[in-house]
Amino acid sequence: MAGKLNQSQTDPLSQLKAAGFQVRPSPISPSWMQASREDSAVLFRETLDNRIEMLRSPGLLRNGKIFRLLDKGYQKFLTDDQQEIPATASHLEKINSFYKDFKEAIGLPVLFNESLGALTAVTQLDGVERPVLAQGARNSKVQNPKSK
Question: What is the pTM of this model?
Answer without folding.
Answer: 0.72
